[in-house]
Amino acid sequence: GVLGTAMAPGIGVESVEAAVEAAGAAQPQKARREFWSRWITLAAGMCAMLCSGPIFTFGAIHTDTKRLLGATELQVQLIGVAGDVGLWLKIVPGVVFDFSGARGATMAIGALLAAFGYAGFYASLSGGWAPELAALFWFIAGIGSGFLYTAALFPTVKNFAPHERGFVTGVLACMFGASAAIFSSLFGGCLGGSIFAGKCVDGALGGSVTMYIVVLAIVVPIVGFLAAAGTRQVGDQLAVPGVGDRVGLRFALLFGGCVSFIVVVFGMKLLAAFADRSISTWGNYVWMCLLMLIAAVPAGAGPAQIIEAPPVQGAAAPVSAAKQRLASAVELVRQMRFWSLFFAFGITVGADLMTLNILSSIVKSRDMEKQMGSLLVVVQMGADTLARISSGTAVWKGYIPLTKLLLVAPALTVVAQIMLALGSDILLYFACALLGLSDGIMWMATPLFVGQTYGLHNVGVNFGLTVLAAAVFQSLFSLGLEPLVYAKHLEAGADVCYGNKCFADTHWVVSALSVCACFAAFHVHMTRRQASQPQTKGDATECAATSNAVSVAAGGSAP
Question: Which of 82, 186, 248, 337 registers the highest number of CB atoms within 10 A of its CB?
Answer without folding.
Answer: 82
